[in-house]
Structure formats: C-alpha cells, structure tokens
Amino acid sequence: MAGLAQSIAAAILLLWMTTLGLAADRVVIVLDASGSMWAQIDGKPKLEIARESLRTVLQSVPADKEIGFMAYGHREKGSCEDIELIVPPQAGSAAAVSSAADNLKFIGKTPLTSAVRQAAEALKYTEDKATVILITDGLETCKGDPCALGRELRAAGVDFTVNVVGFGLTADEGKQVACLADNTGGKYIQASDEKALQDALVETIAAAPAPAPEPAPAPQPAAAPEKPQFNFMPAVVLAEGGDPVTDGNSWEIHKAKSDGTRGDYVTTEYGAYKGNLEPGDYTIVARYGEAGTEQKITVEAGQVYKPLLTLNAGTLIIHPRPSEGAAVADGAAVVIAYPGVDTPATYYGDTKVVLPAGDQKVTVRIGQGEVTETIPLTAGKVVDKDIVVGVGHVVANAYYISGGDKADGSGIGFKVFKAKKKIDGTRQEVAYAYGPDSKFDLPPDDYVLTATVDLAVVEQPFSVKAGEHQDLKIAINAGVLAITAPGASKIEIFDAKKDINGNRKSLGYAYDEKYQAALPAGDYAVVSEKLDNSSKESTVTITAGERAELTVQ
Description:
The protein is α+β, with helices and mostly antiparallel strands. The protein is 17% helix and 42% strand. The protein contains seven helices and 35 strands. It has a six-stranded mixed beta sheet, with helices on both faces. It has a four-stranded antiparallel beta sheet with strand order 11-10-12-13, with no helix packed on it. It has a four-stranded antiparallel beta sheet with strand order 17-16-19-20. Strand 6, helix 5 (146-156) and strand 7 (160-167) form a beta-alpha-beta unit. The longest helix is centred in the N-terminal third of the chain and has 21 residues, at 2-22. It starts with a helix and ends with a strand.
C-alpha cells in the first residue's frame, strides 16, 4: 500500500510539473470528499491514501507556485451545494492545503461538475492561464454534465485546462469523467490500482513536452584552462561531524536578492547533487524529511563550490499500537508537532521521519482513542519508540432476531454514545459508521450503541477494555415489510394505533409503487396515494425475523 500511495503522489506531482512548470501559473486542486472515499484499497481507506499523497506531493512543490484547494461533500450529507474553496490560490499554501485535507470529513455527494466550474471561476479562467486538478473516486451525482462543462470552459477560457485523476474508477466509469479533461486539452489518469497507475505515468511522461535543448557552449580560447565538469557540489548532514545524506533529500535553488532574501526560483534537485551554476548570488535550501536549512553563496566564474549545510535534525520512528503487545495499527494517525512548525504533519501507521532537533509533540489517534507524548530528539540521533493508545476493537452487526438473519442491506447505521448522560439528559456521541461489520476503536469506558435498520432502532449498552476484541450482535426484534401499490405515487407507513387526538404517527414513506423497509414487530397501517388524490389503506402485522408482503390496490 505504501508503494501505491507513493505512486499516486508521483502521478499527481508529474501532472503538476506538466501543468505548473510548463503551462499555467495558478492551480486549484479539487478533492472528492464524498462518503465513498471511505472504501478501501488493500485494507487502507482511499481518503487516507489521498491525504498522504497530497502531503507528499506538496512538500516537493516550489513555494512560489500559487495553489488553491477546494473540496466537496465534506460538510453535509445529500447536499449538491456542499462545495467550498478552503484555500484560495496563493503562493506558499502547501501547508494550508495539507492541513485542510487532513481535517476534512468525507460524508456527502459528488457535485464534481459544479465544483470544477467554481474552481475555474476562482482562478479567473477567462482572464488568465489556469489549471484545475480534479481527484475523484466517483461519478457526478448532482445532475451535472462534465463533458458539456469541459467544452464550455475551453471555449471561454484563456489557456484553461482540467486534469482528472480517476481514483478507483473502472474503465467504463473513467470514460464518463475523462471527457472533462479531453474537452479542455488536459489529461485523464486512471488510478484504479498500482499497475494501472504505473501505465498512466508512462503515458503522461511520454506526453510531456520535451525541454529546450541546451545552447552549444562557446568555443574556449586555446590558452584557457580546462573548465571543471561541475562547479557546484553541495553536501548536507543531520548534525556536525555526521555522514552526508545522499538519498531522499532535496536541493532547492533560488537567486538571491540584494537584501539576502530568496529571489527567482531556479531549480529543485535531489540526492547527491552535482551541477553548474552561472555566476551570481544564490540561496541554497537543503531539505530532508521535515528538516530544512538554507545558505547564501556567491558563485564566481572558474571557481568550484562545495558548501556543507547542517540540518541540526534527528530521526524519529513511531510504532502506533492499539494495546500493549498488539500489532502496529496501519490506519493510526500520527500527528507530529515539531519545532518551528505552525501546522503539524500527519502520518499513518509505522512512521519514520527526519525532524528538527528538539521536543517533538507526538499525538497518535486510533479510532476514537488518542494519546500524546513529548519526545526529546537530539541532532544526529535516532529515537525508535512504541506509542500505545489503549483502545478496544468492536465490530457491530444487526440481526432481525437473536440467532436469525443478519441485516446486510442498505439503511444500516450504528452510533456510539457515552453511557453516562450529561446534565441535560442527553448522551455524548462518540462515533458512527454505516453498513454491516461496522468497526470502532474505542478507549476503555461504558457505552451505548444505537443500531438502525431502516425504520427499526434499538439501543444496547456495552463496555470496552483496552486490547479486547468483541463482536456486538444486536437483535433489533424486527421484520421486513415489502409493499406493492400499482399506480401509486406515494406509499406511507403509519403506526396502527391513533393518539388521543386521532392522529397516527408517520414512520416512513416513498414516492414509488414499491417500498421495502425493516420495521419493529407490531401492527401498522399502510396508505397508498395516486396522482388524482385518491388513496387506499391496508393494515399489516410484522413478526420479528419474518418477511411480510403486502399489496395495496
């Protein structure tokens, strides 16, 4: 899975390099934050892969590139208006974009067409060059037409492009969003699995514009001394006296202004770098992991420069575990607030990272459990540490009756509350999940689980101990009612018994000729309505664990 996340990061980075470095000046990333992003690839939620990939990519993007960030489906369920430009396009926004992605909730629908339109408008696409990068794992669910939007934006824009990353889409699904890229002259990258992603990278690299050829060097006078092959060979170490870092590090080179601040961006190189710089003043920025340092140098013709930069950093290795002796939790969030950072970085599972020396505030979250430790880190040293969160693992399922059939269709939901009520009589909600085999990692405590299957709702208390695994099997004492009402425009289910005012409580309805739902055992009235306002009513008795079929004519 780490390879897949790195490949996705490489694909998005390559796409940015193609659009940012060669064509457009400003970019807005649009991230799908719909509920489907909770689906997993090789046991890891797609939303975690997307967050990790964005974070990795943004670390490699030059600070002067103007990047914005938009998401949809992150605040409201079922809303086609839930679109937000969280980070406006601006230089130096990488940390803000990473933080925004890490704090998203993934709960809503997929209004991707409207989101891309709003991103284009935020970039003033009719006035300037602009690029939108859409990362989606689903198709339009709000009646938008991405193909038509692509043609419209291309016609009205100034060198406007949309690039689409189809994350986990099938080939047929990909065709339905690829037109958004095709109609604007952009690229569609299929990222359904690691192999497909690698193929997409090959295609993207082959399509990237070739760099302009180097100008031929001027002939040297016969008496001039031979020019060195390289005039700039920097080295970087974690601590004074340490061995040079030659893999995983980067060199960011800028022209230096007269006041010593960074000027125009020149290039970014990696590893054991050797190169040539034209005479002039430069600011050299060395980075490795989360650590960085910079140095100003003046290059003169005919001289060779071998600057040594010291990061004053160490290596921190964290193994997050749910309980003592348990295996590492791959989905655990490891948040590290290191010296000098405003927005802490978030990693997942086993974490190894280079950090500036000093006290590291490390917070590990597994499900609803959280623990924070402060770990001192010395320059040039390695700290390898287990952090135990102390949670129990719960798997919840609903059954129509004890020992009966398991509820495994749609309309299944679970909510976990603290058992102890607040002063106002309500309970604090702790977590929620949907579907069968819903999983929760919870700190030791007493809880109440609410299980919902369509119109049937049941509460069950339970307790959690650290390191304990338990399967909660909740009997909802319900059956299934399948209603058919030929010619009906609406079907509605009521309590059979009327209240003191002669009214019956409505339990559920559907605008259709058929309606199926789970109901607690008992008696009910069913009313079907037609477009001419005529109605029919029938009664039915639901037996727990059984299916009832009713025709209302």
